[in-house]
Amino acid sequence: MPRPNLKGYELLELVGNGAGSVVYKARETATGNLCAIKHVTRTTIAGIEQARRDVRSGSRRLGSYARLNYRGFFDQVRNEYRILRTLERDSYSPHIVRADALVTLRRFLRLHGYDLIMEFVEGVSLREKWDYEMTDLIRFYREAAMALAYLHGHRILHTDMKPHHLFITRDRHVKVIDFGLARFFDDPPGRIQGTAEFMAYEQVKGLPMDPRTDVYGLGATMYFILTGQPNRPALGGMAGGAGLTVGFAGRAASVRDKNPKCPPGLEEIILQSCERRPEKRPSSMTEVIRRLDLL
Hints:
This protein is an alpha+beta fold. Helix content is 31%, strand content 20%. The chain has a five-stranded antiparallel beta sheet with strand order 1-2-3-5-4.
């Protein structure tokens, strides 16, 4: 497994991988502080993409690394750093992971990748474990909504909410992670990206997005956590959003039919958040928080 080799940091253990990266827990030798290093290089991208192709196509080897879209992966890590470093340090949300530095890696004068040095968050994602008490899940929902409301106050959209990106710390609080697809409100439209099960209709169609897009993503995330399945089918094929709009025809199926412990008021917030049309969703994360506080 590729490893970062940064002067001044001691690698402790591999803690994760994904999106062309490997993530290590590390210690800054000068201070003793723990951190996470997201290592994104041509080598990690090729290795992870090869593993994915092995699963899909029965170990058909990559003919050439040159075919891989390194730029897309590099753009994501640069974007994550750009987004997180713009947030105000004196009022930084306790529910958003911090990014401290981005180190450019070169090999023979050629861009080889990046090391993103971040806050180390000890815990598990809601994709790995979601069998919490209902009171805890409602609190997690509220804390994630608070993090997104904070982002929206800085004119930033996350656009990639899913259980994998909600980390539950050891003291049972939410940290929102992975800002590779985040964007400012006024950023020009880019290519359609995201995870099909949690993408809002306007997102898969390449239409303008606003805070209600994140309202959908978080609602779809909570639907999955409470029911164990997506609120609509996950479909392949990203070309122009083709095929991804199936499942938006009607309202999502009842949460309480699958999880009777879900309070009716919580179910209504989630189902309304998962509406196809943005105007039918809660108008903002502030409204989501207000309604959660009434439960």
